[in-house]
Each structure stands twice: as structure tokens, then as C-alpha cells.
Amino acid sequence: MRLRFFTVFDIVKNKADQLGHSENEMYANLKKEKINKKDLLAYKDSGIIPTDEKVLSGILNYLDMSRVELELKLGRIPTGFEEVFSNSTKEIAKMLEEKNIVNQQQKEISISSVQPYYSSDLGKLYNGDCIELFKQVPNESVDTIFADPPFNLDKEYDEGVTDKNSFSGYLDWYYKWIEECIRVLKPGGSLFIYNIPKWNTYLSEFLNGRMNFRNWITVDMKFGLPIQGRLYPANYSLLYYVKGDKPKTFNVQRIPLQTCPHCGREIKDYGGYKNKMNPKGVTLSDVWSDIYPVRHNSSKNRKFNELSIKLLDRIISLSTNEGDVVLDPFGGSGTTFAVSELLGRKWIGFELGNCEIIKERLVNKEKDKKLFDKVYEEKNKLFPDRIKELRKKNGLWIDDDFRRGSDNKSTSDKSINEENNIKNYDQISLSLK
Ligand SMILES: C[S@@+](CC[C@H](N)C(=O)[O-])C[C@H]1O[C@@H](n2cnc3c(N)ncnc32)[C@H](O)[C@@H]1O
Questions:
Q1: Positive or negative, the Cα torsion across 357, 360, 366, 369?
Q2: Which of 20, 109, 155, 369 is within CB 3.0–4.6 Å of 163 for a Cys-Cys bond?
């Protein structure tokens, strides 16, 4: 039985299900209330309440509900009732607790231990449903969780794992495994959730009451065809939250200055600040424009979605240290586990579909190692070697010029200069965002 609803459509559908009516019968009954199919479908993919009074009253008649009850079913405090709600929390809590006693007594807790599909010195991969498998994970035992769940886009993954749920069903499911993520994270542990922005707006609202918001990271990437009547979707959202007031680990990540791949010239003009730039690169901002989809067959491990080594390296390096534990409940092709192995992190992985692909990838690491080394050719450098050479050839400045300049000064001048530079580096990085 569905407990929470997020759309009016799902509430109506649930009522029809309770009455044992088919969808056609449901629409026929709605017609009697002067509601046509189009009127109802407008509330299938959004959580709003009908603004048209006629539509609203027809739906309320069909549901045999008041507007207040409808808002409560949508999981919110009814508009205009905030004060009375706030003044009545004692009575509401008492009523809810009394009703819940029966529920608690009926709940059976059965945790059976499951054997891993694959184990390495650093990690364990389990084949099954993440909500079941989470039960194996002790409280406060994980440092970072990265989750790239199905996006409810009606896709089919390997071994018949489908990605189609109702609006309410998807969010209900989502909140269940997020509660588990929060339970297993250590204090100060980090949670990263990758999804399309639409779903992350709901998740953010849910998470704000339970964890500490750090960033909404925009991963700039085109992920489909243009949609008529809408802006072309060109970013994924990566939510970053921590359990408790601050992260237990936050390792600054630096990226190269953006330059033209043909001439090596910087894309933006940094004016007179070039001598103050950190030779290790620009501080990473919350807009990531340097992550590309894994499309080429030579780097892909399966035909379904797969994230890049670069993305996972960034997330894991940023939020963990060697020996820390990383968990990914939606293994897919195993990118999180492959990167954890390469970075010397312990890991726990779940995957409902095909685990053999992941196992093969973790046993034969050469391809991932090559891609990983490529990521490090550019990481924590103001200019990657290739760009540095290109700039030298074209008579453009490189960071070595300034360090060489300060080498010629007297020792005291040099240390003052370096100290000033270090202080300035981060200000400059900020102004580049
Ligand atoms: C978007 S893909 C993850 C891709 C992964 N990040 C990668 O880089 O390869 C989502 C994966 O979650 C799996 N999945 C779906 N529902 C699941 C569940 N309830 N428990 C565990 N895995 C599930 C699917 O089979 C699919 O492989």
C-alpha cells in the first residue's frame, strides 16, 4: 500500500484502485464530475493542487475529500492552517503515536546475512535490491555515499531491471533508501546524489530536514534531445549533503585554467592576476563543465549508462581519505568501485542487475587504470603538460615564469612574495568562478 503521495493524479488513481476500478472506469466516473482525462493528466508529473476551482471541486467530489485532507495526503501542512497546526502539535503527535503502536507491533524485522557476489581486499559487491541490502550495513559505518539511481525515465537496464514508477511511487522508494543512507553514514560523512534537476528539487526538500546542505553541483552535460516548449536540458544535478554540521573530510580539488585546445590561450582574461594564481590550478566551483558522458565503446563497460572515472575520482578524492569507506547502492557498471580501488578506499556496492560486468571490470583493471592516469595528467595543475608546451611555443606566460622570477629575489623578499601569493591564490580562485 502506498503511504505517501506527491501528485493529485496518484491520489485519484489510488482511490480508483481501492474501488477496484480500471483506469477507463476511473475516467468515466471523473467525467460525471465534469473532469476530463486531460484535466487530470495535468497533475501527473507535478505536485501542485489544481488552481482551476471547477477542476479542484470535481476532483474533491470524486475523492470525497476536503481541500485540507487533499493537502494532508500530499504530505503538507494545508495552506492557511500553519498556525493552528503549530499550536496543535502535542495533540497531533499523541494521535499519531497512538495509531502507530499497532503498526510497530506488526512489523517484523528479519535481517538475514547475504553473501557477496564478489570480494576484493578493499570491497564487497552484493547482488540484490539496495533497500534489502542496506539492512546488512551497520549504523554510522560509511564515510561517503555516492548514488546514481534510475531516473524514472522509463528505461530498461540489464536483466530486466526497469525504470518506470508513478511519481509518488518513485519518491516513496527514493526516500526509503535515503533514510538508509543517512543511518549508515558516519557523523560528518558525505552524501552525493546524481539525478536530473526535477527529482533533486524534491530530494533536496526532504534532505534539508535531515542533513546539512553543502552544494547543488551543476554537471554541465547535454543528456537528450531538445523537448518542445521547454529549455533544452543540459545539466545534471549532483546534490552534496553532510551528516551533522560539517564534513569530516573536505580535500580541496583543483582544475586547470580553461584554455583554447588549439593555441593554449586562456579563454577568459585574468588581467593582472596571473602571477598570483595557484600553480596547482583553479579551485573547483559548483559548476562542473569538464565531465563528459562515457559514450565511446573503447571506454564503456556496458551498453547502459555509465559515469566517468573523472567524476567519481573527484567526488571520492574530495570527501574521503585513503582507507575510508565508500558505498554506492546502484553499482551499474561499477565505476565507483573501480575508482575506490584505484584510490585505496574501502567500498561496499549493491546492484540489482548484472554483477558480472562489475566483477570483470574489477578483476581486469588495466583499462580503468589508463583512464585514471589520464585524469591525473590534468588534475591539480594550472596547465596540463600539453597546454604548457603549447603556451611556451606560442610565447604565452606559464606559472613557472613567476616562480622563476621570485627565485631571483633575495630570500626574505622571496618568502614574503610567496606568502602573499599563497594568501591571494584562493581569492583569485574565487573571482574566477
Ligand atoms: C544509472 S545506473 C548506475 C550507473 C553507475 N553509476 C555507473 O557509473 O555505471 C543505475 C543502476 O541501478 C540499478 N538498480 C535499479 N534499481 C535498483 C535497486 N533497487 N537496488 C540496486 N540496484 C538497482 C540498475 O540495474 C542500474 O544498473
A1: positive
A2: 155
pLDDT tens sequence across 22-67: 999 999 999 999 999 999 999 998 889 998 999 999 999 999 999 9
Where do the domains of the chain lie?
8-104, 118-249+286-363
Whether 305 lines ligand 1, by a CB cut-off of 6 Å, is yes
CA–chain centroid gap for 278, Å, is: 29
Q: Is the four-CA dihedral 44, 49, 53, 58 of positive or negative sign?
A: positive
CA distance 327 to 124: 10
Q: With a 6 A CB cut-off, is 125 part of the ligand 1 pocket?
A: no
Alpha carbons 350 and 125: distance in angstroms, whole number = 6
CA 70 and chain centroid, separation: 30
The answer, yes or no, to whether residue 164 has pLDDT greater than 80, is no
**Ligand 1 site-directed mutation target among 145, 158, 315, 352, most atoms within 8 Å of CB:** 352
Ligand 1 atom at minimal distance to the Cα of residue 308: 8
For the stretch 211-243, pLDDT in tens is 999 999 999 987 677 888 989 889 999 999 999
User: What beta strand segments (E) does 53-141 contain?
Assistant: 118-119, 123-127
CA nearest ligand 1 atom 2, residue:
332
Q: Tell me how far apart the alpha carbons of residues 165 and 152 are, in angstroms, rounded to a whole number.
A: 6
pLDDT > 90? residue 366: yes
134 lines ligand 1 (CB under 6 A): no
Task: Report CA(153)–ligand 1 centroid distance (Å).
Answer: 13
Instruction: Give the 3-state secondary structure of residue 287.
Output: strand
- Per residue in 380-395, pLDDT (tens digit) is 999 999 999 999 999 9
CATH class in words for 118-249+286-363: alpha beta
Calculate ∠ Cα 253-257-259, nearest 5°.
Answer: 145
| Strand-pair category, 346-351 with 325-328 | parallel
Is 347:337 a contact under the CB 8 Å cutoff? yes
Nearest of 180, 167, 261, 253 to residue 217 by alpha carbon: 253
Tell me which residue has cell 552524501.
191
- Res 243: pLDDT: 97
Q: Name which of 348, 327, 335 is nearest 302 in CA terms.
A: 335
Residue 134 — pLDDT band, cuts 50, 70, 90?
A: very high
Cβ–Cβ under 8 Å, residues 395 and 411: no
335 CB within 6 A, ligand 1: yes
